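Encode chain A's predicted structure.
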Amino acid sequence: MKKLSFILIVALILSSFCTVPYASAADSMADDMANTLLQDLGIASNFDNLSDGITRAEFCSLVISAINMGELSDSHTLPFTDVTDAHPFYNAVYDAYALGLISSSELFNPDRIITLNEACKIAMSE
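Encoded structure for chain A:
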């Protein structure tokens, strides 16, 4: 049951920033409703407008909030040279790395808009 609710939350997160190019003006109302719901659930409390796109680091923050793990106390060193402890989403990237949601490489590109494929990979990692 817990895995099903996690999948539903991830689907809601993904649908909140995936827009169709030919979408009508009414879809902006749907985006606003999705954003409000995510904020009301406490998942997207740090974001103003999710429909503008989500960065890779922001998505890590959303997933960590959705699974509600809290901060991890494990001692890991991030392998990413472009994510310093001064980055606003450092803890979320750290937690996602510690949980194995993201794999190590030299660069993470935390401020680049995440693609749907990348979001699916992170969300479905175990």
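Residues 76 and 87 are 17 Å apart (CA to CA).
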